[in-house]
Design brief:
This protein is an alpha/beta fold. It has 11 helices and 20 strands. The chain folds into 2 domains: about 240 residues, Rossmann fold; about 100 residues, ANL, C-terminal domain (GMP Synthetase, Chain A, domain 3, 2-Layer Sandwich). The longest helix is centred in the first third of the chain and has 22 residues. Helix 1 crosses helix 2. Strands 3, 4, 5, 6, 7, 8, 9, 10, 11, 12, 13 and 14 form a 12-stranded mixed sheet that branches. The structure holds 5'-O-[hydroxy(phenylacetyl)phosphoryl]adenosine. The site of 5'-O-[hydroxy(phenylacetyl)phosphoryl]adenosine has 21 residues, from helix 5, strand 7, strand 8 and strand 12. 5'-O-[hydroxy(phenylacetyl)phosphoryl]adenosine binds next to helix 5, strand 7, strand 8 and strand 12.
């Protein structure tokens, strides 16, 4: 176990819950699950109705295994009850609202009591501590502040840890770089795609940010290949942090210094892995859709929320000594898959293939087209300036290698277009990688 007296060792007093013996954790989970189900049943019509339809009452939950008898909650349930239909508390007890815009229509709204904010702060402190962040660190928080949970979630956690937080929010890259230098930021929090953009700009200006030790990257999928690139190009260690608004925001799970999966804060969020097609719970070690039940949320308890995020639950003990189970990094969602000529393709596979090839930059776009009813996939990828300048032959080899790498990973051919450095759109928040130009 970490040395509890050394702040750099990944321990904060609140991290004690990361090391609970499993039987004690299970006891706590059951007690919290029963309170959550009772709260949802007595205060939220939607949950009461769903349970009644199945002939279930809170007393039927006598063990953790009984959770599987409860109905799922899906994003549409939040939209259908917009704005406040799933709240379990009167507005007088709710101190914060966040919302996620989604891609279509109404946003979904989530609520927090003061006690919920305290839990959120606690899990974020535990996450920062597990990345080795501590008092004295200067955290540049470039997650967006506002209705998005990233900014304020990381903010409160960083402050409660005792670190110094710069609430710069997302965007304004030149100012980010200036403050990074002038304030000597040691930690950066932002989406991995925005970090790549920052690095690129800093390199252009020949700015050295070697004081930066830790990157806290999440809110969108990123691959292990992307981490390796980041760690090779900069002095920082990049850690994965996971979360979603419906459950709390960032801080549902986070890596430790082992960088071998994200520990889930299981004392507050109960995980299940299901088969997305049938809804059946899968055994530990199987890949499937992550389903989360909140165990301590008051304002908006969430029962068996289908995240659509695809991962695997890992029960083997971690070398860091935490007893919390891990999930493998989330490289895809069950709904971001597209089908090209009958083959299932995930954007993360494209990223993995591209980053295997020397001479590319981690900026790419996937263009889906349909001509005369035939689907096609084009991958645009930036090449390094060295390759672009004079070496046409190198370009051809690169073009061929990329084609092969993609075909190997995807199982179909994709058209590859090499584009000039700095020509593909950069994102300040979550990356938009897929441009769907198909028309029906
Ligand atoms: O993205 C919360 C967050 C903020 C997490 C900052 C981490 C850091 P939403 O906007 O509700 O909340 O989006 C949640 O983003 O269901 C995943 O599909 C995706 N996602 C979040 N973290 C990761 C990650 C925030 N580390 C949705 N890896 C989730 C892969 C992630 N996908």
């Amino acid at each position: 176990m970490s040395n509890w007296n050394d702040p750099a060792s990944g321990f904060h007093p609140w991290s004690a819950s990361d090391y609970l013996p499993r039987p004690k954790l299970a006891e706590l989970q059951l007690q919290r699950l029963r309170s959550t189900v009772t709260l949802a049943y007595t205060r939220v019509e939607h949950f009461r109705k769903r349970m009644t339809e199945r002939g279930l009452a809170p007393d039927d939950i006598g063990s953790l295994a009984d959770l599987a008898r409860l109905p799922f909650t899906v994003k549409a349930d939040l939209r259908d009850t917009y704005p406040f239909g799933l709240f379990a508390c009167p507005m007088e007890e709710i101190v914060r609202l966040h919302a996620s815009s989604g891609t279509t229509g109404r946003p979904i709204v989530v609520a927090y009591t003061q006690a919920d904010i305290e839990v959120w702060k606690e899990v974020m402190v535990r996450a920062f501590a597990s990345f080795g962040v501590h008092r004295g660190d200067i955290i540049q928080n470039a997650y967006g502040y506002g209705l998005f949970t990233g900014g304020l979630g990381a903010h409160y956690g960083g402050e409660a840890l005792g670190a110094t937080v710069i609430p710069i929010s997302g965007g304004n890259t030149d100012r980010q770089i200036m403050l990074m230098q002038d304030f000597g930021s040691t930690v950066i929090c932002c989406t991995p795609s925005y970090f790549l953009h920052l690095v690129e700009r800093a390199q252009e200006e020949k700015i050295d940010f070697s004081r930066m030790r830790v990157g806290v990257f999440g809110a969108e999928p990123w691959s292990e290949a992307m981490r390796q690139r980041i760690q090779k190009d900069t002095a920082i260690r990049g850690y994965d942090i996971y979360g979603l608004s419906e459950v709390i925001g960032p801080g549902v799970g986070a890596e430790c210094v082992q960088q071998a999966g994200l520990h889930l804060y299981e004392d507050h969020f109960f995980p299940e892995i299901i088969d997305p097609a049938t809804g059946q719970v899968l055994p530990e070690g199987a890949e499937g859709e992550l389903v989360l039940t909140t165990l301590s949320k008051q304002a908006m308890p969430m029962i068996r929320y289908r995240t659509r995020d695809v991962t695997t639950l890992v029960a083997e003990p971690c070398a860091c000594g935490r007893t919390l189970r891990r999930i493998k990094r989330i490289e895809r969602r069950s709904d971001d898959m597209f089908i090209i000529r009958g083959v299932n393709v995930f954007p993360s596979q494209v990223e993995t293939a591209l980053l295997k090839v020397e001479g590319t930059l981690p900026h790419y776009a996937i263009v889906l087209t349909r001509e005369k009813g035939l689907d096609d996939i084009e991958v645009q990828v930036e090449v390094t300036p060295e390759i672009f300048s004079d070496k046409m032959r190198a370009m051809e080899t690169l073009h061929r290698n990329l084609g092969h790498a993609l075909e190997q990973v995807l199982g179909i051919r994709a058209k590859v277009t090499l584009v000039e450095p700095r020509t593909l759109a950069r994102s300040e928040g979550k990356a938009k990688r897929v441009l769907d130009k198909r028309t029906i």
